[in-house]
Amino acid sequence: MIDAVGLHKAYRLKKHRVNALNGVDLHVEPGEIFGVVGQSGAGKSTLLRSINLLERPDAGTVHVAGEELTALRGARLRAARRGIGMVHQHFALLSSRTVAGNVGFPLEVSGVDRARRRARVGELLELVGLGDKARAYPSQLSGGQKQRVGIARALASRPEVLLSDEATSALDPETTESILVLLRRLRDELGLTILLITHEMNVIKRICDSAAIMESGGFRESGRVLDLIGTPGSLLARSLFPLPAHSGPETVYVTYPRSFDEPLMSELTRRFDVDVNILGGGVEKVAGQSVGRLSVDLRGDRRDQALTYLSDHGLLVEEAAK
Amino acid sequence: MTTDPSLVIAAATEGASAWDSVAAFVRAWPAMWPDLWLGTLDTVYMVLWATVFSVLVGLPLGVLLVTTDRGGLTPAPAVRTVLSGIVNVGRSLPFIVLMVAVLSLTRFLVGTTLGPTAAVVPLSIGAIPFFARLVETSLREVDRGVVEAAHAMGTRRTTIVGKVMLPEALPGLIAGLVMTVVTLISYSAMAGAIGGGGLGDLAIREGYQRFNEHYLWATVILLIVIVQIAQSLGDLLVRRLSRR
């Protein structure tokens, strides 16, 4: 649904050249929620704004829904942008308009008549759970409500793609959760494709099917979240499950890419006569699946066999010392 | 006019204490009123027309000052430099000097340099750059994120100005308009000094040149009342429109 190839973008800050994008390739499948995570200054925002060409990349191409946006200008670019919704960190609502006026704005701009606009706005507000707030002004709403208005507005012209620019970063944890749930519901119900940028690992964990870790203008790692977690040395796995630093030569990290019914650890001690000492660990729901990661000390003569046993059962085993 | 009001006032003020002079001022009011009313009408006439022209020219000018700036909707640094320069020239001339400087333009446009209509020309020229800067300032306060959101929604640039920037800045624009009106009232009194008419003219002619202080007080009171009315109406409007 979104295909960006070889994106480059450089800024000139006084005498310095800042490479915001350093040859980024991005591929987002239809109906997928793709999260780009990284520190501020990593280039996430530039990447997102390159997708709807709020910033035109210096090099590279962007295709959205089969159309090459980088080849468009003027009226045709504006028309293409109407097929891409965008939600903003600070909501970017018009303070002079009511909630209904804000949600109806994109429709007004594209020339939809008043009656159809009103019907669509009512529909959208119901969709985001703000049916009773049509006549309120943004200043009368909470942060979470404002973001719901922002989401309703982004969906007004029935886009296939939604871009989310740190949509939950200005919200408290509970509100963040409710907005994430809403985004996932919208993806499920409307078949939206969502590209979001965030600096919160939690967002990736909660709703993303795929993710990329961005650093100084490029992707360090990208792919399906569950695959990444099952990849040795994954940064994402390490960030999602912060484990204590390894304490000795015997320490191994064990990743459970799904939930297991069999008691693998007790099986291990019985079969291979090894001692298992759990140093730390956690279980998280990631991309709809329970995923766990343990840090354990394994001691015994048949340690290697024990590790092989775990690998054979689909667990990812990494020696911490290596 | 049947009696010369200044004579009545002169008689009334002779050898008076403070309270007596207030009483004399009140007694002189009916005799002065026809002149004061005409002066008020002239002042309102000049200020209103000058306001109309200031908005017609100053508003687009203020918009251009913002949109042609670097990072604006239609960046054109050269155009902006020129416009900004013109505005600065207008802003740096003291109004009384500007009035004299544009005399020949006034004569060309109106056919005379005397009277309220003639005064509208320098008043407008003085207020346009003033209002344009105020428009610029309030447009700059519009959240950039909102403008960007409008771009992301595929909005034309003219629509962004008309449906995003101006409505979002409206309270500030109204406040700027009120400030312009109040400034114009003060300018209009100066215009009186070179025969523009209005309350300023009255104050200079009767109050200064003929030492009739009742006229002076009366014009001061009327000017204060007019400014108060303009400011209160404006404040009310700003409060009504402000949704922040």
From TrEMBL, chain A:
Sections of the chain in a coiled coil: none
Gene Ontology BP terms: amino acid transport
Any one GO molecular function term: ATP hydrolysis activity
Keyword annotations of the record: Amino-acid transport, ATP-binding, Cell membrane, Membrane, Nucleotide-binding, Translocase, Transport
Domain ABC transporter: 2-241
Pfam families for this protein: ABC_tran, NIL
SUPFAM superfamilies: ACT-like (SSF55021), P-loop containing nucleoside triphosphate hydrolases (SSF52540)
InterPro entries noted in UniProt: AAA+_ATPase, ABC_transporter-like_ATP-bd, ABC_transporter-like_CS, ACT-like_dom_sf, MetN_ABC_transporter-like, NIL_domain, P-loop_NTPase
PROSITE patterns per the UniProt record, alphabetical: ABC_TRANSPORTER_1, ABC_TRANSPORTER_2
Record's protein name: D-methionine transport system ATP-binding protein
Originating species: Nocardiopsis sinuspersici
TrEMBL record, chain B:
GO cellular component: plasma membrane
Swiss-Prot/TrEMBL keywords: Cell membrane, Membrane, Transmembrane, Transmembrane helix, Transport
SUPFAM superfamilies for the chain: MetI-like (SSF161098)
Source organism superkingdom: Bacteria
Protein's GO biological process: D-methionine transmembrane transport
Transmembrane segments: 44-66, 78-102, 108-132, 173-195, 215-238
Broad class of where this protein is predominantly found: membrane
Membrane topology: Multi-pass membrane protein
Residue stretches making up the ABC transmembrane type-1 domain: 40-234
One of the Pfam families matching this protein, by short name: BPD_transp_1
Family: Belongs to the binding-protein-dependent transport system permease family. CysTW subfamily.
Protein name: Metal ABC transporter permease
Annotated source species: Nocardiopsis sinuspersici
